[in-house]
Amino acid sequence: MRQTAENLRAQGNTIAFVPTMGYLHEGHLSLMRKGRELADILVASIFVNPAQFAPGEDYEAYPRDPERDAALAEQTGVDILFTSQKNDLYPEGYETYITQTHLPGHLCGQSRPTHFTGVMTIVAKLFHIADPNYAIFGQKDYQQLAIIRKMTRDLDFNIEIVGGPIVRESDGLAMSSRNKYLSPSQRQSALQLYRSLQEVQKLVDSGETKAAVLIETAGNIIAAAPETDIDYIAVCDPDTLADKKIIDRPALMALAVRVGQTRLIDNTILYPQVDNAG
Ligand code: PAF
Predict the structure, then answer these.
(1) Which mutation among 29, 84, 125, 141 tests ligand 1's pocket best, with the greatest number of atoms within 8 A of CB?
(2) Which of 58, 62, 167, 231 could form a disulfide with 27 if both were Cys (CB 3.0 to 4.6 A apart)?
(3) What does the alpha-carbon distance between residue 274 and residue 247 come to, in Å, rounded to a whole number?
């Protein structure tokens, strides 16, 4: 892959890169389409990265379907599909990992303290290997996108990080490879994640600015659905991810909820009412 990227760049091509863990869905494909528009060559990777799963998480069970993925990637215009095995990227004796000081401590980092080190490490390795001009990540993983943007700046990668909007099923459920784990009744419960975000935006539209009220509202909606267990619901600054008490400018509402055994995340930007009073 490195040699290919080097040759392509030497011939004057630009490269767009979409890293994934496979089991592709429309969310991934929308990122690929964006990449297709941005550059001459579109590279996608599939690698279920063990470093971002803690012991007891779903690394082994993570859904995999390489043949279907290859067909979808090809149909979507991917020129090069880069797949690798655990030992290719983490050979025996591997011991270098990337950390970041602030952003990983918030939101998902509270219950998954090693997760973003694993994400940054693999993304940095893939950036070196695929040598892209652009890399595209989904906004469903808002915190991941923020951390990767920061890592890219801090470590001087000459790569433009591009965010792609959340893609939802027709009933509003944010697309995720993990949705496959949900039973029909759990899937119904999972719909309350997006519904809670919509209800909160309505409250904000009607003038509510207190984060505590918004968090409680979302929490009540989600907790009323069977088999839900809230990991966090947060209203925070979209840049620093620090908690906000009052929404006086656009704020991120992010949540993580276990539905049965499946941990799902979703988020939205809440736009407060414009104050026309003076
Ligand atoms: O978002 C994902 O699928 C993964 O975290 C990523 C960016 C491919 C790194 O393994």
Answers:
(1) 141
(2) 167
(3) 11
